Every structure is written in structure tokens, then in C-alpha cells.
Amino acid sequence: MRAIHRVAIVLCVLTFGLIVWGGHVNTTRSGMAFPDWPTSNLAPMVTYAPSEWLWAKDKFWEHGHRLLAGIVGMVTTLLLVLSIRATPRSQRPHRSIGLLVAVVFGTVATAILGLNHMPSGIMESFMVVLAVLLVTFLTIAIRAPYELRAMWLSVAAFVGVCLQGSFGGYTVRNNLPDWTSTTHGVLAEIFFMMAIGIALLTSPTWERVRASWSPSQSLQRLVSATWAITLLQFFFGALTRHMDAWGASITWPHWTDDAFFPSQEMWQQTQVVVHFLHRSTAYVVALFILAQAISLRHVPVRLFKNLGVVVAALVVVQIALGAGILWTFRGELVTTLHVMVGVALLVSNSILMFSIRRRTATAHAPASAGTFVEQGGH
Q1: Domain map of the chain by residue range?
Q2: Dist CA 74 CA 13 (whole Å)
Q3: Mean pLDDT, consecutive 10-residue segments, the chain of 378 residues?
Q4: What's the pTM?
Q5: CB of 237 within 8 A of CB of 278?
Q6: How many CB atoms lie within 10 A of CB 97?
């Protein structure tokens, strides 16, 4: 488990960097530096000459994002292999799951090595299959016995990183449509939360701390609600960024110099609605996080007390950065910092939710997972 935990920690660090890097790609409008994918200027991604992209700002950010995504994919694959090998043979996924994972890996590897053309519908079908598999494996992971949860999360994370890469490529090949770009951003956070879950599940220290006290039902509900509203706010933020809805209002805290709220005519514009939802939900998130920090002051675990304070401080910084985007007319530094702090907020609330949320332990694998787990060995 120690090796799995270390690899999971590395994956979390890399994923954090990848999400922030991806946010900067959007900030610098570098997403279409290459109109093709998985190739870069029709050259295989991994062999594209550095002299062609290192010194061009847009190409540097976009190609660097692609390469870092490839590294995240490789570490995720390593984590999957280690997790399965650490699982007793009688409890490992059925061989058919292994074959399925191998087919997915082969398809993605072929693309990375330079598949220039894809028949119409192939990529979309592949993404639909991956989405179904992701939901399936996540459901199994949530319902699986505690000792098998990290392994099933590793399977789900592998499928998730493949789906995330596919969405990134699909977005580029279709000239950055808003809905795919937003989904790409939200999927990144879902993948990150899976990586965090694996890191926590394989940490003996975390399990000892978590088992040292029993949180009240009201605290569990509050922490879970805070996590959920933060995830919703991240979705609105991604939508605001990719729709360029930030410019619907460039004043804060009021909407215009003359009014606190948008006028009736403004509500006809989608960008106004999206920006208003993002801005309004930020205040709701702040209230939930404040209530969470106050409630955590009474828990016996200092780690969770401190984390509650850190999250409360982060949300103040995040709101200030959001206002700074308007005041600097979407300045690159403040905009990317806004993404980074937003990711840190969601990560922190996810750790709190994983640590405090309780569920009744089950002694056996759920019936729905029965066809995926071999009983009695290979």
C-alpha cells in the first residue's frame, strides 16, 4: 500500500498542476494553437520538435498541457497496475475487465503515437463507452468493501483520464465548443477527486485520524452540502470562462455603476445569466464555508479544525481574485490564480467530505459488482 499511496500523491500533485496549466491555456487563448489532435501540427505529440513550440507562447502552453496530460495518464496507468497487483487474486476484477482496460489503453496509445485521421463517429462512440464505464466503476467503487475501494477507484480513474483526454481532443477538433470545454474542466475535477480518494484510502495515518472520532449527522450533512455547492460553483466558473461571460459585468460588487442587479433587458442574454449565477453562487459557497469552519472548531481533530480555517481563508482570497478579474479586464495572472485557488477550494472541501462523511461498512462486495469480481481465483 505504501507504493500505491506514494504514486497517488504524485498523481494528485501532477493533476493539480495540469488543471492550473489548463486554466492558463484558456486564460491565454492558446487552446487552438494546434487545430489538430492527437497530433500537433500533424506531428506525433511525443516527438514534436521542441524548437517548434518552446518559444511560441500559445504553442508552449497548449503543447505543454498535452505533454503533462500524457504524464498524468502514464502515472494513472501505473497506479492501476499497482492497485490490482496489491489486491488478492480472489478479489481482483474479472479477466474480462482486464481485457477491456487493455483495449482502452491500446486505443489511447495509438492516438498518442500519431493517429491523424479518425472515421466519423468513432471518437464520439469511444467517448460514450468511456462515460458509461466511468459511471459503472465509480458506482462499484462507492459500494465496494473498504479494502477494495482504492482498487476500484484506480480502475475508474484510468477510464476517467482516458475520457478526459478524449474530451480535450474532441474540443480542439471541434474548435472549442462551450459545452465540451466546460465538460473537460469539470471532468478534470472529478478525476482529481478520485485521485485524492485513492491517496486517502491508502494512507494509514488518515485512516487512524478518521477513525479517532465520530462526527455528528448534522456536521456530515453540512460538510457534504458545502462540497456539493463548491462543485456546482466550479461548474458555473468553467462555464463563465469558456463562454467569456466574465465581461457581462465589469464592476463589483454591484452589476453596473447604476444598479446592483442586471436590468430586465440584460436577462435576455445568456452570458448575463451565467455570470450572475457564478457570482451569486460564490456568496452562497462563502456562507456554507463559514458555517463549516465554525462547526469544525468543536471537533477533536486539529487537522480538520485547521483545514476548515484554511478553506475559509481561501474563499475570501477567491472572491477578491474574482473581483480582480473584472478590475484588470481579465489579466492573465489574476485569472489563472482564480482558477488555482478555486481548485484548492474544491480539493480542500473534498478532503473534508471524504474524511467526515460516514457510511455503513459492508462485509461483502455488492451484488451489482458480482459480475466484475472473480470469486475463487483465476
Answers
A1: 2-202, 210-356
A2: 14
A3: 92 96 92 85 83 90 92 93 89 78 72 56 81 93 90 94 87 84 91 95 87 88 96 93 87 86 89 93 96 92 92 96 91 93 94 81 39 38
A4: 0.88
A5: yes
A6: 18
